[in-house]
Write a structure and sequence with these properties.
Helix content of chain C: 25-40%
Strand content of chain B: 5-15%
CATH class of the largest domain in chain B: Mainly Alpha
InterPro entries (chain C): Cyt_c-like_dom, Cyt_c-like_dom_sf, Cytochrome_c-type_DH, Membr-bd_ADH_cyt_c
Radius of gyration of chain B: 16 Å
Distance between the termini of chain B: 43 Å
Protein name (chain C): Cytochrome c
Bound molecules: FE2/S2 (inorganic) cluster
Keywords (chain C): Cell membrane, Heme, Iron, Membrane, Metal-binding, Repeat, Signal
Structural class of chain C: mainly alpha
Order of helices and strands of chain C: HHHEEHHHEHHHEEHEEHHHHHEEHH
Number of helices of chain C: 17
Helix content of chain B: 25-40%
Strand order of the largest sheet of chain C: 1-2-3
Largest interface: A-B, 83 and 70 residues
Chains: A alpha+beta (757), B alpha+beta (167), C mainly alpha (435)
Organism (chain C): Dyella acidiphila
Shape of chain B: globular
Number of domains of chain C: 3
Number of helices of chain B: 5
Largest sheet of chain B: 5 strands, mixed
Radius of gyration of chain C: 23 Å
Shape of chain C: globular
Number of strands of chain C: 9
Oligomer: heterotrimer
Main location (chain C): membrane
CATH topology of the largest domain in chain B: DNA polymerase, domain 1
Number of domains of chain B: 2
Strand content of chain C: 5-15%
């Protein structure tokens, strides 16, 4: 990591990323730092830039006061805030609203929020090179700029009031949408000031609120989108209704890169409610009056696929290829501090599976293509990319493609892609009416852009005390970045995501050598971002291995880590906090129950999770409790920090416990929650989140819990059973205490196991 | 022609008998609060009440409903249990992406209706059929208890809504 | 020395004679009793189609979902290897397009192919032998009216000596009798029609009658139930406790035509296929005839008898959405699995929520302590299209461990059958391998 070029200077008004902080940007985000941000940065998110053209303003309802792309105030005093990021559950609408509202001087109860239209220029995040919500970057990227945007607006409103009252603006105060002049007892609402403020020039400099005076930031605030969400009133992409719309569902060739060979649609077309059967090279869609008709139609199709070159692909082939690459492939160095010192070499190999996102809302998009326009309603993390792709497919100019972003029923990185939007546009192009394309869950899982599979070889040279003096890491996997943003690939074709959280580690190990061996998947098998991305496997490996080293040194894993973290105060801080809160070592645990620690610095934050798990004699794992210590710097919304960490952990534990896609005869075998299993409430642990309070700039949050979950679980299982898991998901067969334990299953689970409470 | 009573309103519908209620609600009647998550009764996103009982509408053929009345998320706030649950959901700030939450609330309201003071085991029994990919389970559990007892739960950070909090 | 040789020759000759004698076929045409769904006088194709459905040719000769009707290729895992059904479309090269009427009749009724090779009794010629010649030819006419499909036959994978087709002659000599259906003049015409359906066409006994060590049906134990290909075909004798003697006529006919009888059970696995492909197409009069015949089958206990507790206490103490008034042991692993993946449909009281097909209470599946069929259903799911229903349950085998499936099975047996289940992870592992 020490070899990477310095990020080019960023506009100070935009993003404040110190070098140390930038290096910890993490995941999807850090990749783009390799690009440098000069040039493009100035064309992105800004506190002072306004939607230029009149059409946009009109679509916006011609608000009297719209000093920048985020704030619209009309004469009634109604405050609308336009959100630069997409809301997929991470509470960013609330966070952004808090930043804007804090400086603007309104309460969250006084605003309404709106999705932004696609525009890299207005809403692009330099850290990501565009209008992208991902990589746990939103708060980090908008933290300064949105506060400043709010302050700009407030300053203009205050100036308008001061001018009217002929007083010094500095003598005015703002509170809950009203400007006050205390000395004279006068006050005016934002609505009354909107027109006048709209005519004022933009201030060059604004004063941001001193953090000690924050009214909203740093408090646990209720989400701005909660009320609609509990009433079923929130419109997600799948809920869009456009007059004249028909509904389609699709089936794409089950193999990677296969094609449609022939299709007999007679029976399908004869079904009531079926309107049309559409074809693409590699997929078919049935259009119906409603989803049910479309689905029945799909079922009635007789499809023959040309299964293509991957017709015989299996998971094992992929695994073997990766293992071979990790062991023998030529690596691209991410770090090399010189020769491996003499001493005892310890080495382990770890494997991580392909994972699906399984967002709760299956992929969908509603598209209406007419000869001179393409309108798209979709929940996306990348509205501007969706717009560009649709323009390519329809041949329309970019400004004729209108994207209406929607609330996302989960993102997790899946909605950073546009594959399903492209497919929907290609189908919709064939019909005159608006077409809502909804994937079945089976389609959603089988045609996911899955988290890549990895094979990692980790090693260390340890001294006589069992302390590592050198570490080595060889990771092999496909590159998401190379496809997603080829220009962001680093020196020598390095994918920074591949070595995130391992090229730099918080532990004081003097030297190391970290290499990435690029091993692409067969054509057609497309891998993608997944909540936590690179760190999800790197941390599983590093933190499992640190535990191995501690065990080898016959030391308590907490004490062992503490000794190695003396130079990383923030990591040590969260470790100590979590250990204290769970009461590490205070009381003996029941039989086959263990606690596992994982500590790391992903996404610019510092986190330690301690999982307490019980393993039954039959090998079933029961998650009892998780305690997390987290340091994200300044907290914007402390409530959503807790929620994000809890949710992220459960997402990560879910994957570690159960998930892994497998391929047989060239096709993904899993299809729905019966075979792509996820944690349910009765399997989920209690998750306590404790925060280190400081005034550091905010770190990323959305993926932190996910990235830290698996190693903490694996270490807990080791503590409970003495079995080290080198592969995910947890193979419960390895955890069986004895063959006799299995025989007892029959006797053990006699009902009426109903024991009075 | 089939007649369905949804949220107190009766609808005359020309749909096949074997069409699942979910799609009748969403694509024919236009009530989109009830969600599609799996279509195989595994996720609970499509939960509605049939005469007050929670059912998975994605596998419930409309032809089998008869005279029973349907209540969806759009109207559950009008029942005492639904109202309490929704209030607790706000106070604990349960939702994340929100997609599963219609189903969660419908299952929770049915639970509270039946068991005014549910234990953890009761919550497991009633709520385990509802998947949340965002992982809101910790707060769901807290909110159900809060709805039952009226006392704020320990794990909850939103002790009170500071001035200016969203309503 | 010479004497010894003569003796050997004699023995061989006698053996050969016996082989031929015992393999001799009944050459009579036979007559079929009246079937309401297949009027004799109407066109032969319609009759052939009805008979082909009643005989469930599809189940074995069409790979589900392939769209290649009667092109064969369905695998059958038997204790001694895997055999594949053959292409019976009129395709000359791969199917039976070149077969004469006599050759077809001989194959169906005597299990001998047009090239003289013996068929394995997985093909139920042991039942079809009772069919009348005109019925067999009606089926042939129907098959020949369908599209020819050029799909090559799959090699069987049988170990020695089971791969020696000629040896089937010995099996036939011992266990098989070529013989037409003989109406019993002492019984009603309805009963005779029912028997013809049961024993000749629908070949109920092929699955429901226990087999001996040599895979032959145990006579004297007809329809008393057995385990086959990992599924239990239940006792369907008139035994009121272990069979279907206590079922009402409409219970039985509903089960046959719809795959479900309230409080009795829902067809799954091979029986679901029989309903879907065959039984649901029976004319109601014919279904009634079949019921009348089944009622007359002597009561037998059979092996591994299942006793149904239709009022299992734990289930009765539960309501649709919550386990019983007494609080359940929240840590029972089987119960935890049930509440997550199963309760949404089956309900804690076992009544079935969205559809009565999901009801469990009173079924033999949950009362079989070996959990044979519930294990299979959990592992592989079900898919049943019958009269008025399109019912499925997803398969859980992929994501749930053997231990979990065993725990869940035992919980279900305990909760809904009020018995202690005996399913072990090993049982599950074994059943996983079966089709
Ligand atoms: S959509 Fe009905 S349970 Fe998932
Ligand atoms: S809140 Fe997103 S799935 Fe539950």
């Amino acid at each position: 990591m020490n070899k990477q070029p310095d990020p080019a200077p960023v506009e100070p008004a935009n993003v404040d990323l110190g070098r140390r902080h930038a290096l910890q940007a993490g995941g999807l985000a850090i990749a783009f730092l390799w690009l440098g941000t000069g040039g493009t940065a100035s064309a992105m998110i800004s506190a002072r830039r306004q939607a230029g053209d009149g059409a946009a303003a009109q679509a916006d309802g011609n608000p009297s006061f719209a000093p920048n792309a985020f704030i619209r105030i009309d004469t009634s005093g109604k405050v609308r805030l336009v959100m630069p990021s997409a809301e997929m559950g991470q509470s960013i609408y609330t966070g952004c609203s808090m930043l804007l509202a804090e400086e603007l001087g309104v309460g969250l109860d006084q605003i309404t929020v709106e999705h932004s239209p696609p525009s890299d220029e207005l809403y692009g995040i330099p850290l990501l090179g565009g209008q992208i919500t991902g990589g746990s970057t939103s708060t980090r990227a908008t933290w300064q700029v949105l506060r400043e945007a709010g302050a700009v607006a407030r300053s203009m409103l205050v100036s308008a009031a001061a001018a009217q009252w002929h007083v010094d603006p500095a003598s005015c105060t703002v509170d809950r949408g009203t400007v006050h002049h205390v000395a004279s007892g006068r006050s005016l609402g934002f609505g009354a000031l909107a027109t006048a403020a709209g005519k004022l020039p933009m201030p060059d400099k604004v004063q941001l609120t001193d953090p000690k005076d924050f009214k909203l930031i740093g408090k646990p605030m209720r989400r701005v989108d909660a009320v609609d969400k509990i009433k079923g009133a929130t419109q997600f992409g799948i809920d869009v209704q456009v007059p004249g719309m028909k509904v389609a569902t699709v089936m794409a060739c089950p193999t990677f890169g296969g094609k449609l060979a022939s299709l007999d649609d007679k029976a399908a077309r004869a079904l009531p409610g079926v309107i049309e059967v559409l074809r693409l090279d590699n997929a078919v869609a049935v259009v119906g009056e409603h989803f049910w008709a479309a689905k029945q139609g799909l079922h009635a199709l007789n499809i023959h696929w040309d299964r293509g070159e991957n017709a015989n692909l299996t998971t094992q082939q992929l695994r073997d290829g990766l293992a071979d690459a990790a062991r023998h492939g030529k690596g691209i160095p991410a770090r090399n501090d010189g020769d491996q010192p003499q001493g005892t070499l310890v080495q382990s190999e770890y494997r991580s599976p392909m994972l699906a996102h399984a967002t709760m809302e299956p992929m969908n998009a509603t598209v209406h293509v007419t000869p001179d326009q393409c309108e798209i309603w979709v929940g996306t993390q990348v509205p501007a990319r969706a717009q560009q792709e649709a323009a390519k497919i329809t041949g329309l100019p970019l400004d004729k493609v209108i994207v209406h972003n929607q609330y996302l029923g989960g993102g997790f990185g899946r909605r950073l892609e546009t594959d399903w939007v492209e497919q929907a546009v290609a189908f919709a192009k064939q019909v005159p009416y608006p077409l809502k394309v909804v994937w079945t869950r089976e389609e959603d899982i089988r045609h996911d852009r899955m988290r890549p599979m990895y094979h990692d070889v980790i090693s260390a040279v340890v001294d006589a005390d069992g302390k590592p003096v050198w570490y080595g890491y060889r990771t092999s996997g496909s590159s998401v970045l190379a496809r997603f943003a080829p220009a962001a690939m680093g020196k020598d074709g390095m994918d920074s995501d591949a070595v995130e959280c391992v090229a730099e580690i918080p532990y004081d190990i003097p030297k190391g050598k970290v290499e990435w061996i690029r091993h692409d998947m067969p054509t057609g098998l497309v891998t993608g971002w997944w909540r936590g991305v690179g760190p999800t496997h790197n941390l599983f490996v590093v933190e499992s291995f640190i535990d191995e080293l501690a065990h080898r040194a016959k030391q308590d894993p907490l004490a062992y880590r503490r000794a190695l973290l003396q130079k990383s105060p923030r990591a040590l801080g969260v470790l100590n906090l979590a250990a204290e809160k769970i009461g590490w070592g205070a009381q003996p645990l029941p039989a086959r129950t263990g606690r596992g620690i994982a500590v790391a610095e992903p996404f610019g934050s510092h986190v330690c999770a301690i999982v307490e798990a019980e393993v039954t004699p039959q090998g079933e794992v029961r998650l009892r409790r998780v305690v997390v210590g987290i340091d994200v710097g300044i907290a914007v919304n402390t409530s959503s920090i807790e929620a994000q960490v809890q949710g992220g952990l459960i997402f990560g534990l879910s994957a570690a416990m159960y998930s892994g896609l497998s391929i047989k005869d060239g096709a993904i075998e899993q299809g729905n929650f019966n075979d792509y299993r996820v944690l349910r409430i009765n399997e989920s642990p209690l998750v306590e989140v404790h925060r280190v309070i400081n005034a550091e700039p905010p770190g990323g949050l959305g993926e932190v819990g996910t990235a830290i979950a698996a190693p903490a679980l694996a270490n807990a299982i080791f503590a409970a059973t003495g079995v080290r898991l080198y592969q995910l998901p947890v193979d419960r067969a390895l955890l069986v205490q004895s063959p006799d334990a299995l025989k007892s299953v029959a006797a053990a689970s006699t009902d009426t196991g109903r024991v009075p409470a | 022609m089939l007649s369905l009573s949804v949220n107190g309103q009766s609808h005359a519908l020309d749909v096949p008998d074997d069409m699942p209620l979910l799609w009748v609600l969403r694509d024919v009647i236009g009530l989109t609060g009830t969600k599609f998550g799996c279509g195989v009764a595994q996720c609970g996103a499509c939960t509605v009440h049939l005469d007050g009982q929670p059912v998975r509408s994605c596998v419930l053929p409309v032809g089998a409903i008869g005279n029973r009345t349907i209540t969806t998320i759009e109207a559950i706030g009008a029942t005492p249990a639904g109202q309490k649950i929704q209030q607790a959901w706000l106070e604990v700030d349960v939702v994340q992406c929100g997609y599963c939450q219609s189903g969660q609330i419908m299952s929770a309201a049915a639970l509270l209706q039946r068991t005014p003071n549910p234990s953890d085991a009761d919550i497991d029994a009633a709520m385990s059929g509802n998947i949340c990919r965002c992982g809101t389970y910790v707060r769901i559990r807290a909110a159900i208890k809060q709805a039952a007892t009226g006392t704020p739960e320990i794990l909850q950070t939103l002790v009170s809504a500071p001035q200016g909090a969203a309503p | 020395m010479i004497r010894l040789l003569i003796a050997i020759v004699l023995v061989v000759l006698l053996g050969a004679g016996a082989y031929v004698f015992l393999n001799r076929a009944d050459t009579s045409d036979g007559t079929a009793p009246a079937l309401a769904g297949a009027p004799v006088s109407s066109d032969v194709l319609a009759r052939g189609e009805y008979l082909a459905k009643a005989a469930d040719c599809t189940a074995c000769h069409t790979v589900p979902g392939s769209g290649n009707a009667f092109a064969g290729g369905v695998p059958f895992k038997l204790p001694f290897g895997t055999i594949y059904s053959s292409n019976i479309t009129a395709d000359e090269a791969n199917g039976i397009g070149s077969w004469s009427d006599d050759e077809f009749v001989r194959a169906v009724r005597n299990g001998v192919r047009n090239d003289g090779q013996h068929l394995y009794p997985a093909f139920p010629y042991t039942s079809y032998t009772q069919l009348s010649r005109s019925d067999v030819l009606a089926i042939k006419a129907y098959l020949f009216s369908l599209p020819k499909i050029a799909q090559a036959n799959h090699e069987n994978q049988l170990s020695f000596p089971f791969n020696q087709r000629w040896a089937m002659g010995f099996w036939n000599a011992v266990f098989f009798k070529s013989q037409r259906f003989q109406p019993d003049p002492g019984q009603t015409p309805q009963w005779n029609s029912g028997k013809y359906l049961a024993v000749a066409l629908a070949h109920c006994d092929e699955c429901h009658t226990p087999r001996n060590f040599a895979f032959a049906m145990k006579h004297g134990d007809e329809l008393a139930g057995q385990e086959l290909q990992g599924w239990r075909a239940y006792n369907i004798t008139s035994d009121p406790v272990h069979g279907i003697g206590a079922w009402s006529d409409s219970d039985i006919s509903n089960y046959l035509s719809r795959g479900h009888a309230d409080g009795r059970g829902t067809a799954a696995g091979p029986m679901a296929e029989a309903v879907e492909n065959s039984l649901r197409y029976l004319n109601p009069t014919d279904t009634a005839a079949l019921v009348a015949y089944l009622r007359s089958v002597p009561a037998r206990t059979g092996d591994a008898p299942v006793t149904v507790d239709a009022a299992a206490a734990p289930a009765l103490a539960s309501n649709n959405a919550a386990p019983g008034g007494d609080s359940a042991n929240a840590n029972d692993p089987g119960m935890k699995l049930f509440e997550g993946a199963c309760a949404s449909c089956h309900q804690w009281n076992g009544k079935g929520q969205q559809t009565p097909y999901a009801s469990l209470l009173g079924t033999r599946g949950v009362n079989d302590v070996h959990g044979t069929n519930i294990t299979q259903v959990i592992l592989h799911g079900t898919d049943l299209r019958s009269l008025g229903a399109n019912i499925f349950m997803p398969e859980f085998g992929d994501a749930y461990s053997d231990t979990e499936v065993a725990q869940l099975s035992n919980y279900v047996i305990g909760h809904f059958g009020n018995k202690q289940g005996t399913v072990t992870p090993d049982d599950v592992a074994r059943r996983r391998k079966q089709l």
